[in-house]
Design a protein that fits this description.
The chain is an all-beta fold. The protein is built from no helices and eleven strands.
Length: 118
């Protein structure tokens, strides 16, 4: 599985960005796709995830501001980020997971920098 992320950049507080992540390779049974982020000196944290059934999960800090969606035909997951705050500054990583019973295999994209600053 290869994940190609794009869409990061520099934006002012209150602005918007949309991240995209295209999956290729052996993508069968990728149950969950999502976005994580890691700020300098911090642990990587889940931002949002979406299942094959389009059930979503969000970190409390981004609820009502970020929206995750997926296009199964294009094999792409999106993260629409609105009302961005300086604390959203981080490297954002696309994630895909294949979950079979109690076994989870994770795949990661290369990361894209999001900087929120005036």
């Amino acid at each position: 599985v290869q994940l190609q992320a794009s869409g990061g950049g520099l934006v002012q507080p209150g602005g918007s960005l949309r991240l995209s992540c295209a999956a290729s390779g052996f993508i069968a049974n990728l149950n969950v796709m999502g976005w994580y982020r890691q700020a300098p000196g911090e642990l990587r944290e889940l931002v949002a995830s979406i299942t094959n059934g389009r059930s979503t999960n969000y970190a409390d800090s981004v609820k009502a501001r970020f929206t995750i969606s997926r296009d199964n035909v294009k094999r792409t997951v999106y993260l629409q980020m609105n009302n961005l705050k300086p604390e959203d500054t981080a490297v954002y990583y696309c994630n895909a997971a294949r979950v079979t019973g109690n076994i989870r295999n994770d795949y990661w994209g290369q990361g894209t920098q999001v900087t929120v600053s005036s």
